[in-house]
Amino acid sequence: MTAEQLGFEGMPRRLYTCTPSRLNTWLDCPRRYRMTYLDRPAPPKGPPWAHNSVGASVHNALAAWWRLDLPERTPEMAGTLLMRGWLTDGFRDEAQSAEWRERAREMVERYATGLDPADEPLGVERTVATRTDQIAVSGRIDRLDARGAELVVVDYKTGRHILTSDDARGSLALALYAIAASRVLRRPCHRVELHHLPTGEVAVWDHTDESLARHLRRAESIAAEAAAADEAYKTRIPKPRQAEGLAVDHTPYDETFPPRPGNLCAWCDYARHCPEGQEAAPRKESWAALPVETA
Asked: Where are the beta strands (DSSP E) in 171-262?
């Protein structure tokens, strides 16, 4: 019996629900995508990373700072919030954690000094979402500013990589945030900014409607591949053996979810479950992504 005979003709296609992170994970490594989003129970992750603790602590402090009453929004209070919410996971020891807590405190205080506390953002840690005929995408923006008639997407960065306008221009996530914010708030949004707190540098890109549309088409293309793989996982591929407490045999999955071994494997949370990844790059120490410490 056909779909038309069953009365399903003309029914809307199911949308692929995703975040920019999910799309980028598929691009980086389909095997990691499977272990992150499809395998249940998910394979155990490796130890937490110190640089993630720094990033989360800084993001949380800045979000909390904007939620304070206006008179309380001082640089010193930004540092206080950082100290109160400091996360310690992944550091080599207490001494290293304490050193980076002080560095991060100085970082957020210096950044807050350059902010106008009265210039209220339209959103802080704000979730936005939009959909097309193919995808339903959502994500959380670190800060959404109103500058004149336009919206501006602001993303905080704390890593050691020095950012450029190319990073802002090429970011699928920032482009999708701009599209979603514009649709949700019914205001134009073309500018995206990466604020690198360690250096104080701001990487900026002003999108056009055409460049945003290209990013959206790219997201739909990635989503189509991932959705097809999701369907194959549900209908044709055996469930993971870890559900029975056994080691995962990747062989039935590799045609649909092949590994993409390379240098990034050293930072993968699932490297212990991936022989190709372990061979490509030994796992780094959990604090290895922190900038080189000074004496």
From this structure: 189-196, 201-206
| Token pair recorded at residue 261 | 């071994």
| N-to-C CA span, the chain | 74
Predicted TM-score of the model (pTM)? 0.89
pLDDT tens per residue across span 182-227: 999 999 999 999 999 999 999 999 999 999 999 999 999 999 999 9
DSSP state of 164: -
Separation of alpha carbons 192 and 203, rounded Å: 8
Three-class secondary structure of residue 143 per DSSP: strand
Contact present, 141 and 181 (Cβ < 8 Å)? yes
CA–CA gap between residue 114 and residue 18 (Å, rounded): 35
3-state secondary structure 23-58: HHHHHHCHHHHHHHHHCCCCCCCCCCCHHHHHHHHH
Calculate the alpha carbon distances from 87 to 106, 176, 198, 235, 287 in Å: 16, 29, 18, 41, 13
